[in-house]
Specification:
- The protein is α/β, with parallel strands linked by helices and 574 residues long.
- The protein has 17 helices and 17 strands.
- The strands form 4 sheets. Strands 3-2-4-5-6 form a 5-stranded parallel sheet, sandwiched between helices.
Length: 574
């Protein structure tokens, strides 16, 4: 789909410092930045005590440490869950916890969250205190079972709660009712980090460190893991999240990050000294997620926990192989999905407003990525399903701006009792389980609900541009300034520009990437560009001499040399 390019309106940027270039001042101002938002100092982080029940949760965990009770961290099988697990394990070790373990459900055997089935496993492992990370807010039955077995339960989560919350001993979730914590978009790993900060203060108040003869831990050493989980979970980069990510990236660039993160960056061929947030999102996160998608997330967790760089490199290589396998699976599934949509013999305007896809042999660990790819292609909310058992389908949903996916599923569930087994998630992404045999009925109800909640113009994708750059502005200096002005990410988008160029050369590299040599309209300068995953039915085409590009400024490094390159987000022949 060719998206409509919409340029941002000029806004007042006079409140921002003059040491920024005029272009950067306008970019920051258009994203709502104040002077303070540009500093990204750790002193600007929100206080932990504004999180509801964080002090209660800290006291429960401190009591368990003091009594030498068995603590089990219950994680999730994605990058946010893995990093959350590692933050808690490493922090608790530094604080002197002795009996400590973790458990991440295999998605294929146990599904998501603190299910009654995984509670039994935790009980068999001797857990006395369960701490959930990046899950638990919807685990009503699991928490009840854990309590019945004599376990205490502390929930840390960031997903939206339903009408009923679990009867846990404490719940730390910024999205629960009456929580005053201002960053509602914090990732699960951020919530875990805040809880560990509150626990550190609780133990300090009890003179625990002095009594045990240990140093009070510096939790800033965990910020590289926090940054990775925050970016990989694609949460909104509000100011608080940007502070966390920026601090983590600085640790990586300074060579002070976990060996596992270093190894993952190496296997992805990223320069640690120049890492930016998108490297976590597109290089490290997918490799970490591959473990949970195709096998068990334990490999991902152990890679992050590893203190030996040689062992970390071996584990990172395993994750890289799993990610390559995941990419192959995803490519096959995407082709099958596109064929099934094409078989409808409809043009794009006649597609369902809400696209639901299912094929019995699809891999349930990859359906989330599939939904995201189809959503990006057609700019419609997509749910992809795979067979979980003879009785159940597992679905993964991705939404577009203006449609709250979790609320949509709640509406469908209310209208069709019993069709959906369970669901949960966010505005932009959600998961659900569906009774086998109900796919056709669900697909119809889903499309009808989407049509109720969206207007036709919302199905047309837009690329929001920061405007056109003059030839004299296409410089390495501006590219460096914009790179250093991050972190960029969800709802704080990396600067995107648009303009018309003459195509001097074009060729395919890799499988579907278009390498370009471009000339500005007035012929003043020539520069390189690359567009990833282009439509091979259109490109390359020597008869196309001019195109409108939407692009980002990029610095290409090759054999120690740096050159300016346009990262082409969209290319439209003119």
């Amino acid at each position: 789909m060719i998206h409509k390019i919409v340029r941002r309106q000029k806004v007042d940027d006079s409140h921002l410092p003059d040491h920024f270039s005029p272009i950067l001042k306008q970019i920051y101002a258009s994203r709502g930045c104040s002077d303070e938002d540009c500093e990204l100092s750790l002193q600007g982080l929100l206080r932990p005590d504004t999180l509801k029940d964080v002090d209660l949760a800290a006291a429960i965990i401190a009591d368990a440490i003091a009594a030498n009770r068995r603590i089990l961290i219950m994680g999730d099988f994605d990058a946010d869950g893995a990093t959350s697990t590692c933050v808690c394990l490493l922090a608790l070790r530094m604080m002197g916890a002795q009996q400590l373990d973790y458990l991440i459900p295999n998605r294929f055997d146990y599904g998501y969250g603190l299910s009654p089935e995984i509670v039994k496993v935790a009980y068999e492992k001797g857990a006395e205190l369960l701490i959930t990370v990046d899950n638990g807010i919807s685990s009503i039955e699991g928490v009840n079972d854990a309590k019945a077995l004599g376990m205490q339960v502390v929930i840390t989560d960031h997903h939206l709660p339903g009408s009923q919350v679990p009867a846990a001993d404490a719940i730390v979730n910024p999205n629960q009712q009456d929580c005053q914590f201002a960053s509602k978009s914090i990732a699960g790993v951020g919530v875990a980090f805040y809880l560990m900060s509150a626990l550190r203060a609780e133990l300090r108040q009890r003179n625990w460190y002095q009594a045990q003869g240990i140093s009070e831990p510096n939790l800033a050493t965990l910020l590289d893991i926090v940054a990775l989980g925050t970016v990989a979970d694609v949460v909104s980069l509000d100011t608080n999240n940007r502070i966390l990510v920026d601090a983590g990236l600085k640790r990586v660039r300074a060579g002070r990050c976990r060996p596992g993160i270093t190894a993952l960056l190496e296997v992805a061929k990223r320069n640690t000294a120049r890492i930016v947030a998108s490297d976590f999102g597109f290089a490290v996160g997918p490799r970490l997620n591959a473990a949970g998608r195709l096998d068990e997330m334990k490999l991902g967790v152990e890679t992050l926990l590893c203190d030996d760089i040689m062992l970390a490199r071996r584990m990172a290589s395993e994750l890289d192989s799993l990610n390559a396998e995941r990419r192959d699976l995803e490519a096959d599934m995407q082709q099958e999905a596109l064929k099934s949509l094409a078989a409808l013999s409809l043009d794009e305007s006649q597609l369902p407003w809400g696209i639901a896809l299912y094929q019995e042999d699809w891999h349930q660990g990859v359906i989330g990525i599939l939904a995201s790819r189809i959503k990006d292609r057609y700019h419609r909310p997509v749910i992809a399903f795979a067979k979980a058992s003879d009785e159940e389908l597992k679905g993964s949903a991705r939404s577009i701006k203006g449609l709250h996916m979790r609320d949509l599923l709640e509406l469908i569930n209310a209208r069709n009792p019993g069709m959906i087994i369970k669901f949960g998630g966010h505005a932009m992404a959600a998961g659900l389980s569906l009774k086998a045999g109900e796919f056709a009925r669900f697909a119809k109800a889903y499309d009808e609900a989407v049509r109720e909640l969206l207007a036709p113009e919302q199905l047309t994708g837009e690329l929001v541009s920061d405007g056109e750059l003059a030839p004299h502005q296409l410089t390495m200096e501006l590219a460096r300034e914009l790179r250093d002005a991050g972190p960029w990410g969800q709802n704080f988008p990396e600067p995107l520009f648009d303009g018309y160029f003459r195509i001097v050369q074009q060729r395919i590299v890799g499988e579907r990437h278009l390498k370009l040599v471009l000339e500005t309209e007035c012929g003043q300068i020539m520069l390189d560009g690359i567009a990833f995953n282009v439509d091979l039915t259109t490109w390359p085409d020597a008869t196309i001499q001019y195109a409108q590009l939407a692009y980002k400024l990029d610095i290409n490094e090759f054999r120690g040399n740096e050159t300016l390159q346009l990262m082409v987000e969209q290319i439209e022949p003119k």
